[in-house]
Amino acid sequence: MGWLAEAIEDAQGMGPQHGLNRFAESLDPEWIDEALRATGTASVRRRKFPAEQAVWLVLGMALFADRSIRDVVDHLGLVLGDALAPSGLTKARYRIGAEPLRWLFEKVANAWSDTSGLGGYKGLALYGADGTHVRVQDSDDNFAHFGKPASRGGSGDAGYPQARLVALMNLSNRLLAGMRAGPWSNSEHTLVKELWALIPNDSLTIIDRGFINYLSFLELLTEGKNRHFMIRAKSNTKIKMVRGLSDGSVLGLLYPPSSLPQGEDVMPGPIEVRVITYQHDGGKPNRLLVTLTDHLAFPAQELIDLYHDRWELELGFDELKTHMLERKECLRSMKPEGVYQELWGQLLVYNLVRREMLLAAQAHELPPRRISFQSSLMWIRNVWLTAWRTSPGNIPKSLANLRSSLNVLILPERRPARRYARHVKIKMSNYRRNRGRRVDSVVK
Q: Is 182:144 a contact under the CB 8 Å cutoff?
């Protein structure tokens, strides 16, 4: 069993005050203290709810998205002394703000995301970059900060304000290496540029085709050594073809857009790419652009197969929204600072769960993708709930039941050849939409 058996044995000593011990083994408490000191949010005086416990509260909220803040505090036994009113919990959250959680996420990502010995591609670390969005509460503060995307009618008034996210993932171990978030008006191209510095040398980054941008590619390539990218071209992406190669791919040049300032001193040169055309049965032809131009060292078919590892990041977004957030309509915070705090907490817990999965995979000598995120998340939740709800005499029996079911963590081999056409499963409602009106928009 390895680490799993040790974790279960450790859980026997858990009580209400020790429900976070499992993560505390991975998340060094000194890191929390350092995060609070670095962001100027450490508790100066002794409070009923000190800053370090507020950090654990945010992590508990992320792990149990379906529980109220009051329930999370009660279950984790976080409050010192007399009970604290719900308003006091909210104040404690906002007193520390989002920065300590961001600091902790980046600390964890920096410590664990670059795991050696986990494949990659021919000596290159394998990363993926993509964007998504999350809905937030339709409060006035959130509406003013985040804004809303355009609706189908083009009114710019969708159902909820939305935060835009761009993430960077190590595709070999599926740990998040970085994230940037902002209002809906922030473009993904702007957010992703802040992530290029996190990509190591000797790497290949697979990028969603929505991020095609010459200047962005130039930054990725020139700010490190031996860094490469692969992306699917849009239909209107213009490439100057230079010469064909024996594997059917073509060497080409991606030129800067004509809108860039002209002049010999400021005008960058073209980016040399390989263009690989492929087509799945029943699908349309696609073109991959990749800066790995040696067709003998990096065969076209290998790169076509490798490109679909980009979906590991899409699966990560699904795990966050579907399993961690329990398909909630939106995040719970009514203010932007709370939204960012929630996001960093969610991503931090995601990486903590992913690290446990990585350790489980190593213990079973399996690739990380063979470990189920949903089952691992449920297992961690169940260990905590066992400590909260079970009398001490029944804990060994409950843990034995958990131990006997650990095989559910291991997934069968994937069937990569499966491909299905997209279908609309559920028709949208025929009811007219109730958009509501904000207080300041009501005609008096």
A: no
